[in-house]
Structures are given as structure tokens and as C-alpha cells.
Amino acid sequence: MNGVTQVPANRILLLVTAVLLHGCASTSVFQAYPRQADNWKMALQNGRTEAALKKLERRSDSADRLLYLQERARLEQLTKRYDASLDTFKRVFDLYEQGDAEARFRVSEAGSGTASLLTNDNAIPYSGFAYERIFAHGFQALNYLARGDYQGAAVEWRRAALEQRVAEQQRAALIARAEERAREEGVDPRRYETHFSGLNTAASEVKSAINNAWVFYLSGAFREGRGEYNDARVDYKKALEMNPDSEMLRTDVQRVTAKMEGRIQDDRGLVVVSYEQGFVPPRREISIPIPTIHGYFAVAFPTYDPRDFTTARPLRVHAGGETRTTEALAPVGPMAARALKERLPAMLVRQALRASAKYAAQKRAHEQLGPFAAFTTQIYNLVSERADLRSWLTLPAHAQATRLRLPAGEHELELSAPGGGATVSVPVTAGATTFVRAVQPASELRVDVLPAQEETR
Amino acid sequence: MRTLTLALLALAMMAGGCSSKVEYGDAQARETVTADFGSTDLQEIAGKMVDDLLSFDPVMKMTREQRPVVFVDRINNKTTEHIDTEAVTDSIQTRLIQSGKFRFVEPSKREQVRRELNYQNESGEVNPETATRMGNKIGADLMMYGNLAGITKRDDNTKDVYYKFTLKLLNLETGIIEWASEKEIRKTRSRSLFGL
To answer: Is residue B196 part of a domain?
Structure first.
């Protein structure tokens, strides 16, 4: 029995480190996620996605599988592997739903909690963000549309709306709980405000991290095309609420209201051009001194740098003598910044606990094993001090959209943006909606015309 | 010490890796794995619809002398889940055929039937005396259609789903709805406090 109690501390530490480095820890614990994500982004830019998809597939069973599956589904979709993307997004939603149903105190999570106490937040399995989940449902709707499955698309738009409602309701409770926890632990988030001024600037650009006007707009256009004017009006109005100055959205609400009341019979069809531009900026790491009972301890925090944020560039769309420019409906960067900001109080609490735990480990190493062990522990503490920079990084920087109303028949649609342009042939059905999806990760503009809806019932 | 570690390791591996097994279950047993639309919901809806339809007085009268021909339209899925509504209508259709009171046409097989009849009548390969003649199809008297609506609510601890299945039978000649019925289902999933 004596042998057990006398296992030296360094053996335990070694064991813990080995385990962390090897299996239980996620791949982002020691390699910052934005560096990994450069692989996927590069693949999208140059169109050679095979290697990136293979890498993502290998990581689809890791602790951070939710993150990798989201990236993978997006890559698959943008390279027109719609069936694969559909299946991958299904796995994404299963993971989100598992998270919803999970017991509030999980034994297995307690394990990664201790692991994260000795390393960093990256050791906690990635659980996603509401804004990512909502985008995922929007993208999945486009997968169904691309396959001509309108019932499936309709379900996904409804899911996107449901998730926005749920997230909106849960948001206040989650923030309140995190703040209460911070108070209990004696952490005052306001003390760190100055370190996060950049994050605050970025986050202040949007009113909500959850409501996604781009998703609502596409959903509205889809429902208008199915003759569900009442539902379409609700969606357009939601999009207008978030972009109150948009003349386009105001006109859309008026038109669909008139259709609802039977005041106009539409012999033209709607062509909706969605434009996903750039990549959402990655998080940056900053170091902040946190007071512990043993003195100040420098810890790493994620933040957003406003200098990484670009302004939206519109896409010009021309057809049938009409020219429109896309409107930036969902600024993804500010939404991500706001989502991060709302999680800060909880992160601060974890970091304070972690600083104490790491300092205590260092001290114990010194007392039991001498200065060399203390030095090693200190190095380990420094190396392992990494901010959680994980987020879905192949999302666009700006999700934009516009629409044209054209007579039934085939139309040539000219699209032009700085750095790229395209001309596509678009089928238009009276009263229905045709979706054109333009994606421009870097300079090349990729355009996809989704199958037109059937004639309105 | 070493044997203890080995034994522990072996135990952990046994607990982790080799614990899955396959069992046959009762297809009619109540399924409560998740709050999502499941087999029990499908069976309950089909059961209620068929019982309602066959015990409805005017329908009983209508089917006493003849077996009306029904055409099944698709059920509109208006929920937030991908539900195979055809599985529900298939169940209803099968039970109604088994009751001997109704007959059904199959619009989804028209193209294949046409191809086969064209082959029998026009290819010259089939003995004309045994070929099935064209132009003798029976038109449907009734159309069956409906909606599956759903309301989902979720908060931190519970998920509440409500489904309402509505089925109607429309007389194609008169435009009158001869029969309608609905089935409501409500399920609540609550999150446990502790788990693995």
C-alpha cells in the first residue's frame, strides 16, 4: 500500500502530460486552431480540396469533431459535393442535439475539466456557438435546395428560425449564470475591460450574436416562392428588424404583404442572389495578468482585433436592364466577436482557477523535486498557456444578398465583384424563386445556380 | 502493483470496447429514445386514422355497397424535423386495403406501368391475346391528403414537442370533404442532472 502513496509527483505529472498530449486532448491544445484552418481556407481558395478534406475526415472523430465536421461540410458544399455535405451537416446537428440533451454535470466532462485546468481551454471539447449552428442550418437548406428537395429545405429554414428563437431565450440565462459564477469566485469581469477594447469595438457593430438576417432573407424568399406569403412576411420582417435602413427589405415586406392580401398577381419570378464574401477573421491571442493568491500570473485570452475586420464589398448583379448590388445582411465577424464577448465571464473564471492550479503545481514541484522540476513545470505552464482560438473559420466574412424580379423564362445574369465576375443563365418561373449562390473566398468568384422552384400552388 | 495495473487496464478495455450487442425488439413497443418523431408516433397516428375512418357512419354507409377508389396525395411536413410522411400514409393505406373497404391507385408507378403496357402492346414480342389492354384504368373517387404540423419548444432543461397530424378525404367529383380526423401527440424530454 505504501508504494502507491509514494509515487513521485514528477511521475504523475509526466503521465498526465503524456495522456494530454496523446489521446484525450484535442488537436488544438498545442497547435493554435487558426494555423490548422489555413489549410481549409487555402484549399477553398485554390480549389484543391482533396488533401484538406482527407485531413478533416481524419479529425472527424476527435474531441473537437463538431468543429472539424462544420469545416468539412462547408468545404464539401462549396465544391458541390452536396450529398456528402448533407450527411456531414446531419452529423453536426446530431452533435448539437446531443449537447442539448446531455446531463448538466457529466462525469466525462469533469475529466476534460481537470485536463483543461492543467493545460488550457482547448482541452475542452468544442461545443460550437449559436451563430454557427444557425449558419449550419441555413447551409443545409441550400444542400436540400441543390438536390431539388423543397420539403427538406423548408424543414431546415424552420430549424434555423427555431434555433434563433431558442438561443435568444437561453442567452440571458446563460450570461446571468456565468456572471453569478464569476461573483462566487471573486472574479470581476469589468476589471479586464481595458484589455478587451478591441473585442468590444468589433462586437458593438451588431445588436445580436444570434439573429441572422441573411438566413431569414433566404428563408423568406424561399417561402415567397412557395406561395407561403404569411411566413415569408415574418422572415422578411425579421431581416428588416436587423437592418432597419434597408430599402430593399422594406420593399420586400410591402410586396409580400400585397401578395398576401391578394392585391397583386405576380407574373414575374424572383431571382435571389446570395453572396458570401471573404473569410470570417480568426481570433487573436492576448496575454493578461490575472491575480492569484500567489501573485500575478500571465494568462492567454482569445480576442478579436478590429484591424482584421474588412468592410463588405458588394456584388453587382445585372439582368434584363436592371442592376442591383448585394446588401451585407449578416456581418459574421462582429457576430463572432459578440458571441465571444458573451462567453468572457465564464472564461475569466476558468482562467483564474487555472492560474491558481498551475501556480500551485509549480510550487509543489519546487518543494518536492527541487529547482529543475520547478523550472520544467514553469516552462510547461508557459507552453501550455494558449488561448482558445477555435471557431468555424471557413464561414464568410460577410453574408450578403439581393434580388431581381424578372419575367418568366431564361435570363442571362451578369455578376461582377472586385477581382472576379461571371455570367450565368438563370431559369425564372412566374411567382417562384430561383436561388443563385455566389461565393468569393479570395479573388475567384464561384457561382452556382440552384434548381428553380416549381410553379406556385 | 504491475498485475493490478494490468488488470485495471484490461477491465477498462472491456468496459470501453466490447460492450455493444444486438438484440431483436418488439416493433410495436413504445420507443422513447429521443423526443423526435419515432416509430410509436407513426403507429399511433396510423392506428387512430384507420379506426376513425372505418368507424365513421357516412363512410361505413359509403363502403357497404362499393369499394371506393382512393388517390393518396403527399402529406405536407410542416415540422422542424425531416419526417418521412410517406411512411405514415403507407401504413394507413396498407391497413385500409386490408380492411377490404377501400381500393387505391398508385400515381408514383404510372410511368413504369405505361412502359410495361407499351412493351406488351406495341413491341410485337408479346402474344396480343395475353397482353393487358390499355385504357381500362379506374379513376379515383376520393383524394386523401393532409398536414403534419409541429411546435417545438426548448429551454435549458426540457424539450417539448407537439405534433398534429390532420388527414382529410376529399370527394373528387363533388369537392366535398367527406371525412377528416386529427391526432395530437405531445412529448417532453427533460435533461437529467447527472450522467456519464
So the answer is: no
Number of structural domains in chain B: 2
B129 CA to chain A: closest CA distance, Å? 43
Residues B57, B43 within the same domain: yes
Same domain, yes or no, for B50 and B125? no
What digits encode the pLDDT tens for the residues A190-220?
888 888 988 999 999 898 899 999 999 999 9
Say what the pTM is: 0.85
> Is B117 found in the same domain as B71?
no
Interface pTM, i.e. ipTM: 0.75
Residues B162 and B182 in one domain: yes
Tell me how close the Cα of B191 comes to any Cα of chain A, in angstroms. Answer: 6
pLDDT tens readout for residues A322-333? 999 999 999 999
Distances (CA, A) of A324 to A248, A251, A320, A386, A415: 10, 14, 11, 45, 10
Strand, coil or helix: A355: helix
Domain closes at, from B137, B156, B182: B137
User: What is residue A105's predicted lDDT score, i.e. its pLDDT?
Assistant: 52
Q: How many helices (H) and strands (E) does chain B have?
A: 5, 6
Q: Measured between CB atoms, which of B76, B189, B196 is closest to A101?
A: B189
Q: Could you tell me how many CB contacts below 8 A there are between chain A and chain B?
A: 56
Tell me the residue range of the domain where B170 lies.
35-105+140-191
Q: Nearest C-alpha of chain B: how many angstroms from A70?
A: 20
H/E element, A221: helix A213-225
Mutate to test the interface with A, among B1, B80, B188 (most CBs of A within 10 A): B80
Q: What is the pLDDT of residues B155-189, one digit of tens each?
A: 878 889 999 999 999 999 999 999 999 999 999 98
Q: Round the CA-based radius of gyration of chain B to a whole number and report it.
A: 25
- Residue contact A101–B196, C-beta within 8 A: no
What CATH code is carried by the domain that includes residue B185?
3.40.50
Mapped onto helix, strand or coil, the DSSP state of residue A143 is helix
**Is residue B46 domain-shared with residue B122, that is, in the same domain?**
no
Q: Which residues of A touch B189 (CB under 8 A)?
A: 101
